[in-house]
Design goal:
Helix 2 (26-38) runs antiparallel to helix 3 (42-61) and helix 12 runs parallel beside helix 13. With 504 residues, the chain is of the alpha/beta class. The chain has helices at 6-22, 26-38, 42-61, 90-102, 151-154, 168-175, 197-207, 214-220, 225-238, 322-326, 345-356, 396-406, 419-427, 440-444, 484-496, and strands at 3-5, 71-79, 83-85, 114-115, 122-123, 131-137, 142-149, 158-162, 187-194, 253-261, 268-275, 281-286, 313-316, 333-342, 369-371, 410-413, 431-434, 447-454, 463-477. 32% of the residues lie in helices and 23% in strands. It has three domains: 1-150 and 281-306, no CATH class; 153-277, 60s Ribosomal Protein L30, Chain: A; 309-489, Alpha-Beta Barrel (fumarase).
């Protein structure tokens, strides 16, 4: 009978969340590297390159892959004969492990969990509590999976109670385009089928914990209906042409995972949850012999790529004019230099409240650009920690008022803008620039100075002023209202329909 000691369990949880903050699973990197090699869309290929470069930098520097270091999710399979030498509950032990991981001074992770979600939304400051799923199984060991799920991908989770005669494939193909690019493709789709609504959602989440193996499945062929469904969805979702970061391209998903469960005769519940470009999970067993040991991956599995900044047009943010912005074309690659303000959900809500009350804003936005970001705290000699973009779509409802009442000239974020935001951009001859989600550490290297400019009490959601040098972005919505997130996928869906299906 194995005895699982409290300290061993806690430290194993802490080590795992640190580990996954800077190490992608090797199977994901192998699949992403293959996607990079076969990609034909220049914009998508550039985005995948940034993700791969960022991943290697994080593995070498032990800093987070993404500024959104995720909500902590833990799957436990506890042997019914295991004995605990612990004074704390399992939830308390998991939370203590998460607390240690996220407050580790050598690699401090961003605290994104808010208490009282429908009220004050107060930051817990240590990313606790974790979301824990426990199953009691035969045996005397404890199997643990730790995953960090970012908000951008979690927000795109979908559920629908289909009729038993409905097509799951049709529902997925109809639903994936509605998810936009905020989940940071290319990633993995997890699908849960059957059970009850909450069981389907749990199956979808749990399916994402399996290794990326679609290419092995393609090579050997399907052995059952679920594997046939995986292959069909992998081919057809990629044929949508959404591509990396929603820019249009050959690869939208690197794998499709499916778990199913018996269901009611009148029911066909189906859930879909994506894993983003920051796919993060670690698996280990505890057998009473001590804390888990997580061996580092072999960096030889990472491609040696370097970002080529020579193709970008340098922009001086301190002198840029509306006339210059009007000359930028959709898809242009820019290198931002100068002072860049930041702000995301909480800051925008506060700014709009102040505008509605006629109050003077603490920051002058005239002819300035704002970056939708919530950075990780810096460590050692960093001026800022990983600082990749957050999903711009969440700021759509604030966009017209910000553009028309503050003099704001442009915005930087990830993913697409909705119709109302695009209309506001066009009407105000403004611009929206896209940075690559999943390249947070790479982006942070372009930030040479950072200071809090307003709302310091909001923590990572405060307004900062960054000084940037050659920060790479793409013109995603130009001053005439043309969006590459609309034109790119349409172009590549048409192209894919005319070329042999890419399967390998």
């Amino acid at each position: 009978m194995a005895t699982i000691r409290q300290e061993d369990f806690i430290q194993s949880i802490a080590d795992a969340f640190q580990y996954i903050s800077y190490y992608h699973p090797a199977d994901y990197i192998k699949a992403l590297s293959a996607a990079y090699e076969r990609e034909q869309s220049p914009a998508a290929k550039d985005a995948i390159a940034q993700i791969l470069i960022n991943s290697r930098m994080c593995a070498e520097g032990h800093r987070p892959i993404c500024q959104d270091t995720g909500i902590a999710v833990v799957f436990l399979k506890v042997g019914m004969n295991a004995r605990w030498d612990a004074a704390m509950s399992v939830q308390e032990m998991v939370d203590e492990g998460v607390r240690r991981a996220y407050n580790n001074p050598d690699n401090k992770l961003r605290a994104s969990v808010l208490l009282d979600p429908a009220g004050a939304r107060t930051n817990s400051k240590d990313n606790t509590p974790a979301v824990v799923h426990t199953e009691i199984v035969p045996g005397d060991h404890v199997e643990v999976i730790c995953a960090a799920k970012g908000g951008g991908s979690e927000n795109k989770s979908k559920f629908y109670a289909l009729n038993p005669s409905d097509s799951i494939v049709d529902w997925v193909l109809k639903t994936v385009p509605t998810m936009g690019a905020g989940w940071c493709p290319p990633g993995i789709l997890g699908i849960g089928i059957g059970g009850t609504p909450e069981k389907a959602m749990l199956l979808a989440k749990e399916s994402l914990m399996a290794p990326v193996d679609i290419h092995e499945l393609i090579a050997r062929g399907p052995g059952n209906r679920i594997e046939e469904l995986r292959l069909e969805l992998y081919e057809k979702v990629n044929a949508l042409g959404i591509g990396a970061q929603g820019l249009g391209g050959l690869t939208t998903v690197l794998d499709v995972k499916i778990l199913d469960y018996p269901t009611h005769a009148a029911s066909l519940p189906v859930a879909m949850i994506p894993n983003c470009a920051a796919t993060r999970h670690a698996h280990f067993h505890l057998d009473g012999s001590g804390p888990a040991r997580l061996d580092p991956p072999n960096l030889a599995d990472w491609p040696k790529l370097a970002y080529d900044a020579s193709k970008g047009k340098r922009v001086d943010l301190d002198k840029v004019t509306r006339e210059e912005v009007a000359s930028w074309q959709p898809g242009d690659v820019l290198l931002l230099n100068g002072k860049l303000l930041t702000g995301r959900d909480a800051a925008h809500k506060r700014l709009i409240d102040m505008l509605n009350k006629g109050e003077k804003l603490p920051v002058d936005f005239t002819n300035r650009f704002i970056y939708y970001v919530g950075p990780v705290d810096p460590v050692r000699d960093e001026v800022v920690g990983p600082a990749g973009p957050t999903t711009a779509t969440r700021m759509d409802k604030f966009t017209r008022q910000m553009l028309e009442q503050t003099g704001l000239l442009g915005m930087v974020g990830k993913a697409e803008r909705g119709p109302a935001a695009i209309e506001a951009i066009r009407d105000n001859r403004a611009v929206y620039l896209m940075a690559v989600g999943g390249a947070a550490y790479l982006v942070s290297k372009a930030i040479r100075a950072a200071r809090v400019a307003a709302f310091a009490d909001l923590g990572m959601e405060a307004i900062y002023e960054f000084e940037v040098k050659d920060m790479p972005v793409t013109v995603a919505v130009d001053s005439k209202g043309t969006s590459v997130h609309q034109t790119g996928p349409l172009e590549w869906q048409a192209r894919i329909g005319k070329i042999p299906v890419v399967k390998g």
